[in-house]
Amino acid sequence: MTLSSLTQTEAAERARLIDVQRYDIEVDLTGLLSGDSFDSVSTITFSCSDPGATTFVDCAADVSHASLNGVPLDLAAHENGRLPLPGLAADNVLVVSASTTNTASGEGILRTVDPTDDLVYVWTSLEPDEARRLWACFDQPDLKAPHRFTVRAPGTWKVTSNTAPGKIEEVDGAARVWRFPDTPRLSTYVVVVNAGPFHEVRRQHDGYDLGFLCRQSLVPHLERDLDELVTLTRQGLAFFGEKFGVAFPQERYDQVFVPNLGGAMENWGCVTYGDSQLFRTPPTHNQRAVRAEFILHEMAHMWFGDLVTMRWWDDLWLNEAFASWASNWALAEATEFTDQWASFLALYKRTAYDMDMGPARHPIRSEVDDVSGAMANFDAITYVKGQSVLHQLMAYIGEDAFVEGLRSYFAEHAYGNTVLDDLMSAYSAAAGRDLTEWTQTWLDRAGTDVISLEGATLRAESPDGGAPRPHRLDIASFVVEPDGMRMVDVHAAEMLGASVEVDLPTADLRLLNAGDLTFAAARPDAGSLRLMLEHLGDFAAPLDRALVVGTMTQLLLLGELAPRDVASAISAALHTERNPALVEPNLSVAHLVADRWAPPSESPALRSALADAALVLSSDDVNRQPALRTLAANATTDDHWTELAAAAASATDTDLAWRMAIRRAELGQRDDEALAQLVAADPDPDAGVKRLKVLAASPDEAAKEEVWRAFFVDYSVPASRDTLELGAIFWRPGQGQLLAAFAHRYLDELRTLKGGLLNQGVVIRAMYPHAVGDDAFLTAAQVASQDESINQYARNQLVAQSFVLGQVHRARLL
């Protein structure tokens, strides 16, 4: 079925014409136990401000019956996912029976069979307009209404939805009916139905009924981390409730870990996560922090996105940027992850600079003419630059005004819809400051300002030739002493133009944007840069050390610093770094630069030096696990392999053995018999993905073909962070000749990608040929980026990733 994409004009007209009182949705899942059939009956009660008018309801499933106010509708008129509704009355009841067998692609719904026990699990994920694939609805965010779900499911299954089940009825020996009470007024994209033989744990805390669910094969991993998940959930609900001025207004709060979901979804009161967040081996500090950010990001959406919802998809950026910012804020303020801002800067902020400093840059805020364009800019500018700009706004107006503005916003607009001006007006009132120009300058212009210090003059240069953005930032001054770097001053500066004079004390080094308050690239003076490279490990504050790494990667992207200098400086600092919030991010960045950015002639030595640093770091109990993982990824010498062998022999799981097998395969030493033994010994239901990683690393065409088929033919790679890792392993820099043909095939595959938007996005990013694409590929990628048969998101990613690859080519010449 070819589907029409709702335009903003159509949505505004429909919202003017109708008001939805409620949805009563009956769902039958029994056909999914051993088949692929999903059935629904949607009853919509709504009013019309212009009786006699015509509108349409969205339904992208097969409609078997439809009636409006008791009169059957002409099903022949149902096309492109729309069913016309002629002759509306002042008060209307629409009933639509629909079904679909498209339950294996992840488009709105996914049915998964666990390979270890053949148990079936089902989840729905409905953003932006996927609800119409399952039941009839007015699928736009500003037609909010209570939803009441009645779900018929196999008798062995549990069903979760947005509210606690009110009644569960046995209807026969093989099925049960789950009746859920009304939700609050919600947008169609944040309702949910999940089902399967889930393992469920419930905890009562602080007046909340907290639920945690996963598939049966992952019960040990959920149970291992349960206390931590409960603690984070309690901390988040308390923190946001206090800061936002309103407690989450529902007793039940479920978190469901489901298979093959490439991310997470903020369904009201029932968040779903890809179950790769239930780590198959005890997680590192960084893995725990990333999962904690997921938990608090989706929780922040309960207020910003669910309770108060943006009117149209042009403000989707704000929805996601706010949740990303709020999650890091909460982590730093309310959990054990007090150095989260340092971790974010060292590991993630770089991705926004990668995009915003290249030709794929776009304003944070942009027009969205129809829903199909809503996800096109669902990228690092949306999430990472967006949250960084909110971080700058808090610095600009002060935290007290920021919090006061949020409280006013939630109090005024609860259960309603808003536009950006509603939020910024609340901030302006709280701060007593007109933010109109600030908003336009930061949100409606693309690109990254570059900040530099020339004597006593702080300068900012905009990439578009216009005036730079207003910046509230700090400059830290340091002197070098025998026992490290000593900070002698922090100077607060507010830039409202291209330059400002600053009064700084005598010092050896200036750290621009200290505290990472703004979003800008920093170009240090030559003396400061030299000392940064030499003394990275000597800065006392974790955020300062993270800022130095961030500055290095910015200069790398600007073509002003060689990969060897960046990789060497970080590896040297890792000999003494012990803060777990920075160890793993720095190991990751050092590996990225040594493996992907460095010239092939220099990469082996840089990777070996990184392995040496990891070997030293592995003696620290707190950081041993990430150190061993990096050691395994870069092992070169006998000392490296000896330590790894001893660690693997004493391990209680197969994680390190898998990582060693991947590195051996990259070096041309794959052992298929040992590989089969590893698969057999690993209880992970997704162990097959680990086997694919070993094949992906192999300099062997047949092995590469098998991995390629899993990605693009069989779609058998579960969507998760492992997908990104698998892609990085596939494109080995030393295998350029073997991989050249695959790089061009990647462009062809973009035209036929299947699956939901979240899962497609993971594959597009994972399988871009980083580090091996040559000039011919970059030329072909440029042509493909103009091909409208490829979806807009993929084309945007082509431009963004190709810019970075081009900078890699240039950096290798330094």
Automatic annotation (TrEMBL):
Residues 511-783 form the ERAP1-like C-terminal domain. Its EC number is 3.4.11.2. This is Aminopeptidase N. GO terms for cellular component: cytoplasm; extracellular space; membrane. Keywords: Aminopeptidase, Hydrolase, Metal-binding, Metalloprotease, Protease, Zinc. NCBIfam families: pepN_strep_liv (TIGR02412). Belongs to the peptidase M1 family. The keyword Nucleus does not apply. One of its GO terms (biological process) is peptide catabolic process. It holds the Pfam family Peptidase_M1_N. Residues 120-190 form the Aminopeptidase N-like N-terminal domain. GO terms for molecular function: alanyl aminopeptidase activity; metalloaminopeptidase activity; peptide binding; zinc ion binding. The keyword Disulfide bond does not apply. Its cofactor is Zn(2+). Residues 233-442 form the Peptidase M1 membrane alanine aminopeptidase domain. The lineage of its organism: Bacteria, Bacillati, Actinomycetota, Actinomycetes, Propionibacteriales. InterPro entries: Aminopeptidase_N-like_N, Aminopeptidase_N-like_N_sf, ERAP1-like_C_dom, Pept_M1_aminopeptidase, Peptidase_M1, Peptidase_M1_aminopeptidases, Peptidase_M1_dom, Peptidase_M4/M1_CTD_sf. It catalyses: Release of an N-terminal amino acid, Xaa-|-Yaa- from a peptide, amide or arylamide. Xaa is preferably Ala, but may be most amino acids including Pro (slow action). When a terminal hydrophobic residue is followed by a prolyl residue, the two may be released as an intact Xaa-Pro dipeptide.
